[in-house]
Amino acid sequence: MSQEVYQYGQGKVEIAAIVGGVIGDWRWLGDVSAMTLSIEEAKFTHTESYSGEKSEVREITTGTTCSGSITLQSMSAENVAQFTRGTNTEKAAGTVSEEPLGAVAAGDVLVLDDFGLSDIVVIDSAGTPATIDPSHYEYDGYNELTFNSLPDPAPTMPLKVSYSHAAYKRVALLNGQKADVALRYKGINLAEGNKKQYVEFYKVSPGLLQNLELINNGQQLAQSPVSFKPLKDTSKPADGELGQFAQVVTVDY
Fold first, then answer.
1. Could you write out the DSSP letters of every residue in the chain?
2. How far apart are CA 131 and CA 22, in angstroms?
3. Which positions ≥6 away from 124 have C-beta within 8 Å?
4. Distance (Å, whole) CA 195 – CA 187
5. Which residues sit opposite 204 in a β-bridge?
6. Hey, CA dihedral for 227, 202, 186, 88, is it positive or negative?
7. Residue 253 has what pLDDT?
8. What residues does 10 pair with on adjacent strands?
9. Averaged pLDDT, 196-222
10. Cα(159)–Cα(103) distance, integer angstroms
11. 78-95 burial, b for 16+ CB within 10 Å, e for fewer?
12. Nearest residue to 117 (alpha-carbon basis) of 98, 95, 132
């Protein structure tokens, strides 16, 4: 009788861009709480017409399809960009000098260009600029200033603001092109003495985030499922030892 082998896996899932048929640098997706693969056959059956019983006499397979899914726990800017076909940009911490605010009235809420502001100074446009006392405005902690009042006498418009800002990452959603990637799993099987496992999909069409949880009140962290479809990598030989779709490796130590 063959040995029983059970599966209880944990490990890292990594992704790499494919550019011009060449796999780039691998990037860890962070915490992935689930990863599954399904393989299905496309087939039909033929029913005979001579016995009166209409029995099935042939099953014809016309192809195979693979599909998979991963559940992301790590919603980094890089992951959000990857699975929303977006672009990720990073801005280093810095300073802004005299960003124009225009003609400001009491009650105005003004959106600034950056996030994570400190050392905010608002001045007017007089020949000798006057500094607006901070008691007249509030900063919301993100990128907005609310002017609850203005000094008396009225300042010379337009107002201008200077500030320091923190480093931040920004993702523009759905502004990129879909592209194939490579995907691999580097894990251990806890059910079999922590034997190492390695699974590599040579060419994958990644899906979009099925959801992006922004507010949740449950007793678990937000998670986002993503589907993927392994494709045939025709750059590899059809009769090669490692095939054209994927390889699964179990290390016996």
1. -PPP----EEEEEEEEEEETTEE---EE---EEEEEEEEEEEEEEEE-SSSSS--EEEEEEEEEEEEEEEEE----HHHHHHTTT-EEEEE-SEEEEEEEEES--TT-EEE-S-SSEEEEEEE--SSSPPBPPGGGEEE-SSSEEEE----SSPPPSSEEEEEEE--EEEEETT-S----EEEEEEEEEGGGTTEEEEEEEEEEEEEEES-------SSS---EEEEEEE---TTS-TTSTT-SSEEEEEE--
2. 57
3. 130, 132, 155, 156, 157, 158, 159, 160
4. 8
5. 181, 230
6. negative
7. 73
8. 188
9. 93
10. 7
11. bbbbbbbbbebeeeeeee
12. 95
Q: Residue 1 pLDDT > 80, yes or no?
A: no
Given a contact cutoff of 8 angstroms between Cβ atoms, the answer to whether 110 and 144 are in contact is yes
- The pLDDT confidence band at residue 63, using thresholds 50, 70 and 90, is very high
Output the pTM of the full model.
Answer: 0.86
Which residues in 191-204 are b (16+ Cβ under 10 Å) and which e? Answer: ebeeeebebbbbbb
